[in-house]
Amino acid sequence: MIKQGHTLRATSRSDHSQLCQDLGISYLRDAIAFLEADNDVILICTSILSLPEVLKSMPLHGLKRQTLFADVLSVKEYPRDLLLKVLPEESDILCTHPMFGPESAKDGWKDLAFVYDKVRVKDEATCSSFLRIFENEGCRMLQMSCEEHDKMAARSQFLTHTIGRVLSEMEIKSTPISTKGFESLVQLKEGTVKDSFDLFSGLFLCNRFAKEELKNLEISFEKVKLKLLDMMNVRQDINDSNL
Ligand SMILES: NC(=O)c1ccc[n+]([C@@H]2O[C@H](COP(=O)([O-])OP(=O)(O)OC[C@H]3O[C@@H](n4cnc5c(N)ncnc54)[C@H](OP(=O)(O)O)[C@@H]3O)[C@@H](O)[C@H]2O)c1
């Protein structure tokens, strides 16, 4: 964003001033000073589970102008509903999910998916210029409803993270005879456990479609297990009849 000529200010509960200084971002410890600054866009990047607490701690009465609120949470109906509830009518709301993070985007954002839903946008110019930041970096821009996103993400991202966490519980590691398939499982495990447990639990607790997918996973696991046990019984029968 800085490379594209934008001015950035940040605030958080912890002190990130050194990192911000290194990146050329002004860091404001005081949320009031942050909200009173002349921000076109306020981009919310907190953990999914802390969003209600973070919004509650923001003195929204301090807003001095019409502002676009955007978020990057990995679930979308949940922040949409909260933002519609707490933000003043005159604030615009853009719900987004960059489908990438520090690992997958370390070499740039080109061809990576960027999902967005214009939940309440009156100031089209500001919204378009915010979206252009991602377009300019070559992201695949996907406009879809928060509901569509959550349905799809429960069946893809939540599933990926759940399987990664299961593999981590199993403590899988590369072996000298690893196949490429197994190596991709090891990579999946390593990639998912790098994300915080807050993020993973948010994917489950704050996406109404995730419970069904967890159930589907359990049912499918049982089906595969039954197929194997059936085969075991068939072989036992063959062995018995050969005796
Ligand atoms: N990681 C990814 O690949 C990725 C990709 C797309 C979207 N996202 C979304 O981006 C957001 C941030 O993700 P993340 O990977 O940085 O990890 P995260 O664990 O989901 O979030 C960490 C952030 O949440 C803040 N936070 C946590 N608990 C808080 C609380 N009780 N009160 C106030 N702030 C709190 C932290 O602030 P402090 O640093 O001040 O403690 C930090 O900024 C999430 O909503 C996630 O779903 C992540």
UniProtKB/TrEMBL annotation:
GO process annotations (BP): tyrosine biosynthetic process
Transmembrane spans: none
Molecular function terms from GO: arogenate dehydrogenase (NADP+) activity; NAD+ binding; prephenate dehydrogenase (NAD+) activity; prephenate dehydrogenase (NADP+) activity
Domain Prephenate/arogenate dehydrogenase residue range list: 1-243
Keyword match Oxidoreductase: yes
InterPro entries linked to this entry: NAD(P)-bd_dom_sf, PDH_N, Prephen_DH, TYRAAT1/2, TYRAAT2_C
Keywords, alphabetical: Oxidoreductase
Superkingdom to which the source organism belongs: Eukaryota
PANTHER family in UniProt: AROGENATE DEHYDROGENASE 1, CHLOROPLASTIC-LIKE, AROGENATE DEHYDROGENASE-RELATED
Protein name: Prephenate/arogenate dehydrogenase domain-containing protein
Record organism: Hevea brasiliensis (Para rubber tree)
